[in-house]
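hiii, so i know i said id send this last week but things got crazy w the move. better late than never?? heres the sequnce for the chain we talked about at the cafe, plus the structure i predicted for it. fair warning i was half asleep when i ran it
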Amino acid sequence: MSYDFLSLASHGLIDLPWWGYVVVALVMTHVTIASVTIFLHRAQAHRGLDLHPIVSHFFRFWLWLTTGMVTKEWVAIHRKHHAKVETVDDPHSPMTRGIKTVLLQGAELYRAESRNLETMAKYGLGTPDDWIERNLYTRFSWQGVGLMLAVNLVLFGPIGATIWAVQMAWIPINAAGIINGIGHYWGYRNYACADTSTNIVPWGIFIGGEELHNNHHAYGTSAKFSSQWYEFDLGWMYIRLLSAVRLATVRKVAPQLKFDRTKVVADLATLQSVITHRYAVLTSYARSLKDACAAELANRKTRATDGATAHAIADAPSARRIKHWLMVDPATLSDVDRVKLDEALASSKALATAYAMRQELGALWERSTESSDQLLARLQDWCHRAEASGLAPLAAFSLKLKRYA
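okay and structure toks below
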């Protein structure tokens, strides 16, 4: 009996080789990631899908054990992030709080915002409010992680405390830090959203698809985060599997862009498609115009003869930098970028034209007080001026835009 007790204390009920404990830790943390992205993010915060009550409650229970997060708090903070993105009211924007702060203190920012009663009341509507939520998960939010520690110790012995520590650090590091920080600071962009969101990598495996953050900001209510053929969203794969066994119902996915190659005049269907796919439109615009603008600046630099002109365009921006300027909202540019942009606009008629037309196009879907006919007239006028601009890539883009269906 004494030997059995000592063995249990040193090894726990389950004795594994070293790599077995690594696998257990990875599986447990991955279930937590799946719970966050499927339940908290896509189902609760954005209503992109409905989950069967059994699945929904499993996720709630697991998150209580492994994170101590309250559904209403997480949902409210995330919804506020979308509503106030990149402003001083954004709970965790690296643009206003600094990348270092969000990376290293993401969990603290979450806890501070969770105490904001106004945020909870305004953005936390529609989250679970049943007896067990009120009397267990919310009331005793941190007792769950204590129970998880006890379970790990019983199952695995002292190494269970290490597994528990990994579980506790997983979400603060990967979600609160990496997604909220790097996902608004570094990566590539498929869509020219009015924020700095990026896709960190095209393969959403390690964080369950949350790596595709720019795609998500472009179509916030979509249950599917991948949009390009080379992108993979592991969370979406799980959702499809749950749907196949009728444990989930997908409500919303990003619309697919369609073309009518017979169209030569923009109509109301074109207008609706342009507004629906506005971020894709601006991305396509930036890709279409960047090379022409970069080429003109390079040619002016080559032809420059006087010192003043040569100095003004000596630091000519690359095509990549021009694409960035044409994609992002001007308000998100740094002071240094703003100065360089102004210098480039003064040096290049092509870039000045492309940039001005980009701002006009972006303003089209911001005119919410105008009728559809008024907006259509503006779109048709924009296309006419684009085709008469003398800038071949701009004219070609206009012809393509009119084919949106």
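btw Residues 57 and 133 are 10 Å apart (CA to CA). thought thatd interest u
miss u guys!!
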